[in-house]
Every structure is written in structure tokens, then in C-alpha cells.
User: Fold this.
Amino acid sequence: MVSGAHLADICLIYSSTDLLLAEKLVKLLKQSWTVWWDDDAAGRFQNVIPPEIKKAKCVLPIWSGAAKSSDRVYSELEIADKVGAVLIPARIEECEAPDYHAEWSSVDLIGWNGEVDHAGFRQLLRKISNVVAPRNPPERTSRLENGKVRLPVLFHSTSSHETRLDPFEAVKLLTLFGAGASAPEEETGCQTILVSAYDLVDKNCPRSKDKGELRKLRRWIEKFSKRGGFVMVDSGNYEAVRLDNNTWCRSDYYEALSSIPHDWVLSFDYSEPTAHEPPRRRGPLITAAKIISQLKLDQKLTPAPIIPIVHSPKADGGYGHNLDGLPKIVRKIAEELQPPMIALPERELGPGIFECATTVRKIRQELQNLAFYQPIHILGTGNPRSIVVYTAAGADSFDGLEWCRYVVNGADRTLHHTQHFDFFEYQNRLADSMITQDAMDDPDIGISGKVGLHNLDFYASFLATLRRRVDERKLHVFAEKTLGRGDMDQLEPSIPWLFDE
Assistant:
């Protein structure tokens, strides 16, 4: 509560009809600022509310049909006008602003129900932070897209390049596993998928002689989506680079996006200029501006949110990467775009996992200066041990091909060649998923399918426990179980701040 003797950051003006929404707004805003609203008032209206409006650093009126017809709202707006207060209106209904206030640019909170990742709410936070800096860092977010995406999350990747399952087989397996899960979506861990745009166009179909293969892949992606799965599409540049395909371009990317349902899209990568380019073409702000410009081109291709990919600048001499300016690049992109996530390739964060984790922590610390929580996605790591370390450092989301390249030993969470599945097949008899259990005795399911189901069952349990430990602020306990005491003895002296929970 802010008393009359203190200076509030924000003063809320609203109609009593909108009380429930105002309560949700105040609860979230108080995480970063001091907020005064009439629920804090004690005494007569004319003695309490006018002084608070005069002293507030900004005034947040809620525009609604009820507010437009409220004499009290008009009285409070008159006071704000007289003292020249900064107004940041939030519109919660399709309605006109109260008289004489239409010139104030409003934030759209129509349909908002308290979601922290709502685009209008994030814009509101940014506008407020331009007037008054947040007093507290934003709290870690556990859900995105109205609860559809539970953090931390792993997007199970599919690819036609160097995997045990081609894209069609992988998507089919993920769909069947998810459909057979008895636990809620956030516990299954397999309802998020990353498909490559490269595998969705005719000229790159893995089995070019089979013209129906691509149609089958698209149909199974549609099934996955209809059953509640969340689809993210990669740019296709990973496969194009690995296969030395210089013909891959943005028009191919567009063809892929137009062919399947999708929820998020990774941007068509902009690679940072090398150290050989003149200084005027380098620097965090210049790099961020170029990434933002490229992303806006991608946004013309789809109504789905675009996830920017931020490549680390090349180091002088061409070996490794210059990571000094990376946190500022990521923050600038977050400020300008407020995307659901910002993606960073793991291979460009440092030469080893300790250095990579340190880079992630520096980026997270820079992002904590924002008024909203900005999730971080790490590209190309599905290793469970890495996921735990990067989650502790401040990352929230991951994608990787490990689930369809290797076999996981669920006992110690290590990855092995699929030929070693014989050692771990007994674990499938104890799997949570009946589909995984039944697959062991199904002669029509080959070794790659059995390994894939084994891995999916492991990741479902792994992610559920990881999320619970993050919520409980007991990630250190889970890390020790995942990594083992020996590896923790190596990790803790190198990055002692990692588990400051």
C-alpha cells in the first residue's frame, strides 16, 4: 500500500464496474512499480484521491464503456489534466475514449485476462518503463501463449539431415505419443515440435521419388496441430548450410509456411557482419537494427509471431565469437519487438558449456532491466544435462534432435549411440506411456521407432520434474541428481552463482 506521504509510480483510474480486471492489473504492476488505486484509500474521495493523482509519476486510466459514462472517472481525469500528468490509457473494450482524451495513444487490452505474455500488456509495461524505471526485475514466466506453452520447454526437432527418423516418421511418432498420453499437456512434454521449412518444400523432399511423402508429412503436422500440439517452424537454413544448398531462399521459406498450420516461426537468419567489415557496420545497436529489419520482412509472410534468431558477432581474426555486445543486442531486440522468445544458437555462446552458461546469465541479467520477462530460447541443444545448466543460467526454451539421433539412458540422463538401446530396453517396460510399453512387443515398429518412443517417455518425465523444481526454486536438487556429484564438483567452482535461487 502507498500512503499519502509517498510518491507512487502509477495511479490507476477506472470504473468500479471494471474492478476485477483492475485487481489483476494492479497485482502484476506491483511486481515492478509502486501502484496506488482507490482500494488503498481510506477517507473521503476529495481528500484522498486528488493528492495521489497529483503525486503519481504516471496515470493509468482504463477505457471502457462504463468508464466513459462514469462521473467519477471524469473527475479524476480532470485532476490529471490540470496537473499535466502523463497518461497511459489501456482500452479493455471496443469503445471511444472519454471526451477530450481521444488524442492519448492507448494500449489494447481487449480480451486480456491477466496473461503476462499478452502483446498489449507487454506494450503497456514498455510504455510505463519509458516514464518510470521498474523498481524490481520481472519474475520468471512459467507459461506463454495463454498457457499453451509451459516453461521450461523442449521443442522436439525434426529434420531430414542426420537423424534416425525422417521428418514424416518423427512427426507421426510425436503425434501418436502425444495422443496416447494420459497426463495433462504440460506434463507430457511432447506437445511442442520444431519442423524445418527445408523439409516442407517439394524440391527438398527426402524421398523425391515418392511424391506422396511430402503430403503425408503435411497431413501429420495438421493432425499434430489439431490434437493440441504447438508447432514452431525453423527457417531451413540449418539443413541448407549442412547440405551446401546455396539455392535455399526466403521464397522457399514462404512456400513452407503457407503449407502447414504453425504457431511460431523462427526468423530467416540474419548473420552478423564479420570483423573484416568496417566499424561503422558493426556494434550492438546496428546489429540489432539489422535483425529487426530482417524480422519485419519475415512477418509479412505469416500472421504467426516471429522468433528472432540472434547470431553472435564473429571475433577479430575470424575464430570464435565476440560476446561482449551480445546482451545489449538481445535487450534492444526485446525492447523493440517484445517477441514471445529470442533464440540464440548454443554453438555461438562459447567454446564450452561453462562459458555458454555464463553468456546466458549475462544476457538474462541485461534482460532483467526490462519491465517484462523476456524468455530465451537456445537453438540446438536437447541434451538433458545441458538443459538443466542453461535453465539455471536463465534460459527457458530449447530445441534439439537428440531424441531422434541417440538413445537416452534414463538412469543417468546420458546420451548413447542407438545401437546401445539393448542396454536400456528394460526401461521401456517401466515407462509411464502405455504406447512406449506396447511398442516393445510390436514387430511392426523398428528399432528407430522404439528408441524414439523410449526417448519421448524419458523427456516427458524429465521436463515435468524440471518444471516442478523451477517452480519450487529447487533446481539445484534436480541438477545434482541429473549431473551427479562428480560433475557438480566440477561445475560449482567454475560458475558458483549458477544456482542462486
Observations:
- The domain at 143-494 is CATH 3.20.20.105 (TIM Barrel).
- The chain has 19 helices and 17 strands.
- The two ends are 27 Å apart (CA to CA).
- The longest strand covers residues 58-63.
